[in-house]
Write a structure and sequence with these properties.
- The protein is α/β, with parallel strands linked by helices.
- 41% of the residues lie in helices and 18% in strands.
- The mean pLDDT is 97.
- The chain binds pyridoxal-5'-phosphate.
- The site of pyridoxal-5'-phosphate (PLP) has 14 residues, from β8 and α9.
């Protein structure tokens, strides 16, 4: 089933790229495997997937240990608490959810200790939903300028979680806004900051996100089926 789902998602990703005149290799499809068992990840790997997204640190670390495949890229896409940073640095290929200076400072400290450079995205709450993490559009630049001075962190781009909507089309303006923000920041040519990554779009709206410039889409339900939270 996962293989069929992946084929379907892949077809839609390709079609969205075609509509936007973009090349398929500009877009990374992150398989969001949170709450799903290792067996399903192995199935996705069988079908060729290499990028996996998790939103809980403990779950991600457990899965990394169980699967132990160095060719995989693990994306931490959920909120990160400072006391969990030490478990993530050196393990996550990319942290999508940095939204405060204090969190960045913790990542810097832990990365220095481990002598690694950690790639991160800044999470922006474009829709300004109260229930969501992420900084506002207006404070993003200020935060990025501060993080840019940290030697063991590289800011690779921006991430947003759009509102849950019935029709993905409704989120188009959110994606346009994030893209515009990333272009504005890119224009500042800040040392140590590239704005090459735009992580936006989930099962309900990834095609719209790709049309609006996403370079990473995070698809869970569309690949692994509905999640069962208990
Ligand atoms: C769960 C989650 C996703 C995937 O959501 P689906 O709607 O199942 O595709 C994407 N991004 C983040 C940050 C998530 O927490």
């Amino acid at each position: 089933m996962i293989k069929e789902n992946l084929l379907e998602v892949e077809k839609r990703v390709q079609a969205a790229c075609d509509r936007a005149g973009r090349s398929r290799d500009e877009v990374t499809l992150i398989n969001v495997s949170k709450t799903k068992p290792v067996s399903m990840i192995l199935e996705a790997m069988e079908a060729g997937s290499r990028d996996f997204g998790e939103n809980k640190v403990q779950e991600m670390v457990d899965k990394i240990e169980q699967i132990a495949d160095p060719s995989l890229r693990w994306h931490l896409i959920g909120h990160l608490q400072r006391n969990k940073v030490k478990y993530v640095v050196g393990k996550a290929w990319l942290i999508h959810s940095v939204d405060s200076l204090r969190l960045a400072e913790q990542i810097e400290q832990e990365s220095a200790k481990k002598d690694v450079v950690t790639d991160i995205l800044i999470e922006v709450n474009v829709a300004e939903e109260e229930s969501k993490f992420g900084i506002t559009v207006t404070t993003a630049l200020e935060l990025i300028e501060k993080i840019a001075k940290m030697e063991h962190i590289r800011v690779k781009g921006l991430m947003t979680i759009a509102p849950f909507v019935e029709n993905g089309e409704e989120n188009r303006k959110i994606f346009t806004q994030l893209r515009k923000l990333s272009l504005d920041i890119k224009d500042k040519n800040i040392d140590n900051v590239s704005m090459d990554v735009l992580s936006m779009g989930m099962t309900g709206d990834y095609e719209v996100a790709i049309e609006e410039g996403a370079t990473m889409v995070r698809v869970g339900t569309g690949i692994f089926g509905e999640r069962n939270y208990q």
